[in-house]
Design goal:
Catalytic activity: Na(+)(in) + 2 H(+)(out) = Na(+)(out) + 2 H(+)(in)
Structural class: mainly alpha
Number of helices: 17
Helix content: over 70%
Function: Na(+)/H(+) antiporter that extrudes sodium in exchange for external protons.
Radius of gyration: 24 Å
Keywords: Antiport, Cell membrane, Ion transport, Membrane, Sodium, Sodium transport, Transmembrane, Transmembrane helix, Transport
Largest sheet: 2 strands, antiparallel
InterPro entries: Na/H_antiporter_dom_sf, NhaA
Strand content: under 5%
Strand order of the largest sheet: 1-2
Shape: globular
Membrane topology: Multi-pass membrane protein
Length: 449
Amino acid sequence: MKQKLDHYFVRPITKFVQVESFGGILLFSAAVIALLWANSPFSDSYVNLWNYELGFEIGNFHISKNLLHWINDGLMVIFFFLIGLEIKREILIGELNSLKKASLPIFAALGGVFIPIGIYLALNTNPETHAGWGIPMATDIAFSLAIIQLLGKRVPLALKIFLTAFAIVDDLVAVLAIAIFYSNNIDWALILYSFIPLGILFFLGWKGFYHKIIYFTLAVVIWFLFLKSGIHPTIAGILIALTIPIQRKTELSIDMNQLESITTRLLKKRTSDSPILTHTQINLIDDLQAWTSRVQSPLQHLEHIFHGWVAYFIMPIFALSNAGIVFGASDHLDFDLASHIAIALIIGKCIGVVGFSYLAVKLGIAAFPDKVKFKHILGTGFLAGVGFTMSIFVSNLAFHGSLLYQDSAKVGILIGSSIAGLIGYFVLKSVKPASGEILLSDEEEEEEE
């Protein structure tokens, strides 16, 4: 039973954490490189690179944007698509699929959203920067899990699952805020047109039908309509993800029998260690791949494919292109705005996550996960203040057209995220394991199993 639990639940979560953790390291490295590059003698090359115009023209159709916009409006759609897949999975089969399991992450996430917003608005007295209230909302799961991973077995797996679950709820609220409050000059006709291909995808998903070419073609159409409509195109990524079926409507037992039959026949055809396969073996391998695709969950398959691309390429590229702030002139920054964002991330996130979690437990609505102590929740509350990726993304939308406020917001995000991450790390490091609890290395744990 324990081996089945490890195979279907513990190991996928562990792999997810490892990918996100290394992605967080790359994200941090890209941010540091961007800051050094933007403040070096080669700063002009940094600015010119991201302002380089790219586009294409087909007949009367023409689209052209600078490289920074292609990253923020194009590549980041894949990031939001992955978030959408994670949200759907968690709601259907994960930590948010029942009220009992979801109550603590949901309460923690809501506290981590509304308290930072309240603190930001209470501190801010400049009407021009009121729009920045959404910046301290979301938690950067890659950065926070990278920090937790540094603590090794000192942090229980249940805490990593809790952090992942409430960060996903955070992201969902942030996406709704972007769609409702950070979109303007909306062309509702184009939105209505986008509902046609979107409706087709929802119908296909409901029927359990999935075909890569059909989904990709309609997804590009939906993205383009959102891009031209005034609603940020990353919202299209979320909506498209929700149409992906979590399973195909096929008889699983029949598919599994076919896979077993093909595998048995393939093993019988094994003749030698020669790298050259016979025609029969090649045909059997093709059949195996075809039937494997029938069994696979389209949602989990896509999540597996895009997870590495997002963590190892898209997010670092986003950080490299957006984190390059020039510190040369003090009059180029609004330090009040930066400090308000930093305080909201450090203090607001912690008070919100810890306070709402404690309230949920005291009211009997939720309970702390196994082996998780109050001090663990406190450390995680500070880690929730690491809001790098989504915070920078929202700051670009909130202060669109004002480089002064954009850069000031990014300074506040960098400072707030760094301090919150350090405090969270040391708080979690100070938690001693329970009496008799032995912390094993990965190798020792595998040997024990």
